[in-house]
Amino acid sequence: MNNVTGDAIRLHFFPFSLRDRVREWLRDEGTSSFGTWEKLAKAFLVKFLGQDKTAKLSNELATFRHICDDSLYEAWSAVAKIVPSLWDSRMDVDTYFL
């Protein structure tokens, strides 16, 4: 797709990954009110995880270190354990790594 940003794609398709009260929240807010994927992701995390938990998870991800003896699978499993609530809400890991 020519001239379509990653933000635009994420903002367009994110609502389809939601249900129940999360979908209602986003419908009430509207994706256009956030402007960027980063702003939407941050608002989503604060709203549904709370500021303290969001900060803690972000810090754990930012300071995660791969142990040399671990396989890639083991390292990825460790990361996945840090953010199970994000997985449950179908949040994208790209929020932290891109």
Folded structure, characterized:
There is one protein chain. The chain is mainly alpha-helical. It has one domain. Helix content is 64%, strand content 0%. It contains seven helices and no strands. α3 packs across α4. It starts with 5 loop residues before the first helix and ends with a helix. The model is unreliable at 87-98 (pLDDT under 50).
Provide a quick synopsis of the model.
The protein has helices spanning about 5-15, 20-30, 35-50, 50-60, 70-80, 85-90, 95.
Low-confidence stretches: 87-98
How many domain units? 1
Structural classification: mainly alpha
**Count of alpha/pi helices:** 7
The run of helices and strands is HHHHHHH
The overall pLDDT average reads 76
Q: Using the CA coordinates, give the radius of gyration.
A: 15 Å
Beta-strand percentage range: under 5%
**What helical percentage do the residues reach?**
55-70%
Count the beta strands. 0
The global form is: globular
Query: Sheet bearing the most strands, described?
Result: none
Taking the alpha carbons of the first and last residues, their distance comes to: 20 Å
